[in-house]
Amino acid sequence: MYIQSLQEVFGPEATFREGQNEAIKRLLHKKRVLVVQKTGWGKSLVYFLTTKILRDKGEGVTLIISPLLALTRNQIDSTRKYGLVADCINSQINKTLPEKKEVIERCNHGECDVLFVTPEQLQNDNFKDLLSQLRVGLFVVDEAHCISDWGHDFRPDYRRIHQLLKILPKNIAVLATTATANERVIEDVTKQLGDCEVIRGDLQRESLYLHNLYLPNAEQKYAWIAKNINRLQGSGIIYATTIRECERLAIWLRQNAIDARAYHGRINEEDKIELENQLTNNQIKVLVSTIALGMGYDKEDISFVIHYYTPKSVVEHYQQIGRAGRGIDQAVCVLLYGGEDENRINKHFIYDSFPKQVQIDQVLNYLSQNDEVKIATLEQVMNIKSKTLKQILKLLLIDGFVGKNGSSYFRTLKHYYSQQKYYDSIINLKVQEYNELLEFQRTKDCQMAYLTKALDDPNTRPCMKCSTCLGEAWDLTDDYVSHDEINRVAKFFAENYIIIEPRKKSMMTNKNLNFIYEEGLALSFYHEQLGQEARRCKYEMNQFSDLVVSASADKLRRFIRDKGLKISEMIIIPIPSNRRPELVPQFAKRLANRLQCNYVNNLAKKPNEPEQKSLQNNSFQEQSIRKHLYIKDRVNLDNQNILLVDDFVDSKWTFTVAAELLGEMYNDITITPFALSDTSGSD
Amino acid sequence: MQFTNNEIATYLYCAQLTQTRTTPLTILEWNVIVKSLSQQKLEPEVLLTINSTELSNTLIHATNAQKTRIVEKIKARQKLGLSMLELEEIVHQGFGIMFRSKMPPRLKKLTHKHIPAFFYYAGDPSILSHRAMGVVGARSATETELIQTTDIANEAASHGVVIISGGAKGVDTTAVEATLQNGGKAIVFPADGLMKWVKKSNIRFYISNGQLLLMSAQRLDAPFSGYYAMQRNKFIHAPSDAVLVASSKISTKKKSGTWEGVAENIKYQWSPLYVIGNSEGVEQLKAHGNAEQFSSFDKIFTHTEPKRKRERKEIDERIVSLIKLAIAKGLDRETLEEKFVDVSSKYFENQKQNEQETSQNLLVHEQLSMEEYMGGKVEES
């Protein structure tokens, strides 16, 4: 019955896929529908065609809640086929309120039919006021598994949508779509939607050739990637965990004459669009991306997806490889895994994904006893990491236990009940899911069947395409990496600098610092081989090995030279510690010997300094260091270039305060910090 | 908090929703709609889907001018369902919405002309079921008047009497604070939105302690409004069992809020007035016989007790005299007992039928049941 509308868009030959017609019919009757279908089934056809018919009837616009910006841009383009105009509102593209307002007005004046909004926008009061002026006929929740606590992609922002669905008047049709929901999630989402129809189909992706490969360290993985990328047809995506890893891997590939670019949250919006376009047009071979590029990036012919990043669950993995092979017959998806540290760190993050109850109680009690409290005040009175404090406030805000007014927070009327059990249940689920992924990495079963089974697909069957099904016959990749290849990577790592950026402001006074150090150097990341070596040396032997000393000396020589300074004219000063009084000075002395430069031990700490780790936020850390660190010997250091040496660097407050003390004492000096390992972000 | 489709429709069309840049229905317009719908066995939820022509035809109780206005207002908001984000936020922060169907008899003493489609509230609404005394008075009350107010409010706590006030500075605040500190309960109808109130930690303390209920017909973030301040006087006078006037000026060209509220109470006979002190308003109330000097809670709240006893005694006496009459006419004891059961069962059967009819007409019951409290007199709009 809606075939006519379909054919107007796609030509006289077009027909519906199973379930599409049904879904459209229900929606036009203002009913609620949950669509669980694999990527490529045509979920967007359902909402775009429904929108077209509703708009022809004079109904309001379609509002689509969708989590990622990349998806938004891409689908905006595909609406043109339907004769619809789409627009989007998110924190990147239209930042100011007047810009957002203009979009809403265009919607209400019939100049726009489909509006994409990111879920975190629904937390913004000013924006909610604007949305209240929007005439809406169809409300779509994309990636609807996110509204379930049991979905693999728990997002606090989605919890409000759950509540909104209960209150939304029945004259607005609701469509929820996902490709990645198992029975439990489907049941949960269905319950939240109220009276709704589920349209569900087969999840097996015929075009994907899956391959899980064990390579226990970063060097091997880098070597494998460089070797195999050009064997793979077309262009594709490599997923990596951190921004720095994306950058470094992209540099490595470019050194290997592979046209690779990094794509992540710190890249500005215009450059992102440019990168996406280049990938879409096959102008670059590969984007090395954090998971910022993902959901709904709609390139038809992504030929490969390589996971350097370890997904947190098989469902997340299924979703990420789902970008590949949409409009082509063959795409290769490789999951590189291995490394004990990696698992330890991943599990640590899972266990650490919610704040501790005592900290939550601390914040709540303080807010209960006060009227409105500025966040800066909270940071000053509470010894809680500012990232954790922000997370606590966000969770409390989303659960309605606190309210927000500008930068002030206040306790609401809602009775607080401990969320610990709830958080624990989510953490347990995540651990289970992660263990399932670890199992998947080593599975001897069909890899595709493993994935669809995890999603409770009743039609699970062997794919006859993955490296398990094909066994010896798998020839899409060459998995042997030689010693030479690995050594080349090791050399590359050694030559790559990990920069310690200077701090510019005091957190206590919010004023500029009197003295700022130069860009410094860290020898390693904590999770790399050298980082782990340094950790072992510090905690198990209380002395750094020769390996660490010589690696430091090699790297420092080049680094200092590149800065245009002479290493032999530098003065090395160690950061003191009362807990391990010999560890760093000994190391610094050996380093000075090796580099043939001067060594001065003129910094000291007053006793009873609390351990840095116990000081949770910037304000506390800076305060404590300022209280304890001092210059003990007034040797003359005027006009010198100083190398400040410490073992691990995280918050950078020690370097910052030490540099300021020295800078205030001596004339015309420069200070360059050096640390064995950058532990920031790894806890 | 779960809402029915009727409640969602009520909120969508009657809430201020200033952010939508549209106008809500007035109380009178809403009453006309409800009355018209109920006579056609329709419920407010149809307002979510009904088209303009149908709506216009449905509004049988509306004047032509009203019809045009109502149709326009409904049309303007019909597609703005997303503005319910506001309601979601309100509930999210722990506020409640009391629609007419949930309002206790105490509030329904207001005629339906005055009763809003819903109140926002913060706190335990069951406080409304206790005996209550309104306390009103000028901001400029004297030290003596305030001390006396404090004493009375303290005593209210020990008598289990809830204080109802407007939350203004002076008498209002003095009375509420005194009773709360003494473990008593209070209901406040502030002249500004509730949001500002609940941000104060001591207010939240009394609310979570079950001692304080805040109510307002205005949106949560409403600033102080002189107009609403006058409107909300009736929310203090009508639900109270008695009202204490601690101090009042007399309205001249410049209107006195306290005096206007008192005058309205006298006009509608909502609740008996008691006074303390010797402000000009108080003196005039006494002189005109509109108020008594406050003496004690026992006097205010017990004189209703003997009245009830008297009524009971009267009924008993009349039944006894009927029985005497029946015996005199020659009925024996058995027939008399049978007759008694017969008559009473017939009576209750009739009543049950009535009830069924009423529940069929649930909507009128929900929305307009205050008529019952006005002796069936429906005020014309």
CATH topology of the largest domain in chain A: Rossmann fold
For the biggest sheet of chain A, the summary is: 7 strands, parallel
Q: How would the global form of chain A be characterised?
A: globular
Task: Report the biggest beta sheet of chain B as strand number plus sense, adding barrel if it closes.
Answer: 9 strands, mixed
Oligomeric state:
heterodimer
Number of domains of chain A: 4
**How many helix segments of chain A?**
25
Q: Any idea what the shape of chain B is?
A: globular
| CATH architecture descriptor name of the largest domain in chain A | 3-Layer(aba) Sandwich
Number of domains of chain B: 3
**What is the β-strand count of chain B?**
9
Q: What do these coordinates show?
A:
The complex is a heterodimer of chains A (683) and B (381). By secondary structure, chain A is of the alpha/beta class. Chain A has 4 domains: 3-200, P-loop containing nucleotide triphosphate hydrolases (Rossmann fold, 3-Layer(aba) Sandwich); 208-338 and 428-492, Rossmann fold (3-Layer(aba) Sandwich), CATH 3.40.50.300; 358-418, Arc Repressor Mutant, subunit A, CATH 1.10.10; 497-678, Rossmann fold (3-Layer(aba) Sandwich). Helices cover 41% and strands 17% of the residues of chain A. In chain A, the strands form 5 sheets. In chain A, strands 3-4-2-5-6-1-7 form a 7-stranded parallel beta sheet, with helices on both faces. A 6-stranded parallel beta sheet of chain A has the order 8-13-12-9-11-10. In chain A, strands 17-18-24-23-19-20 form a 6-stranded mixed beta sheet, with helices on both faces. In chain A, a hairpin with a 2-residue loop joins strand 15 (402-405) and strand 16 (408-411). The radius of gyration of chain A is 28 Å and the shape is globular. The mean pLDDT of chain A is 88. Chain B is an alpha/beta fold and 381 residues long. Chain B has 3 domains: 5-91, no CATH class; 101-302, Rossmann fold (3-Layer(aba) Sandwich); 314-373, no CATH class. Chain B has helices at residues 5-14, 27-39, 52-58, 64-78, 85-92, 105-108, 143-158, 171-181, 194-198, 201-208, 226-231, 233-237, 257-268, 280-287, 297-302, 304-328, 333-360, 362-368, 370-373, and strands spanning 96-99, 118-123, 132-136, 162-165, 186-188, 212-216, 242-245, 273-275, 291-293. Chain B has a 9-stranded mixed beta sheet, with helices on both faces. The longest helix of chain B has 28 residues, at 333-360. The A-B interface holds A 30, 59-60, 63, 122, 125, 128-137, 139, 160, 163-164, 166-172, 368-372, 400, 403, 405, 410-415 and B 2-3, 5, 8-9, 12, 17, 19-21, 45, 48-49, 78-89, 91-95, 122-123, 198-201, 204, 207-208.
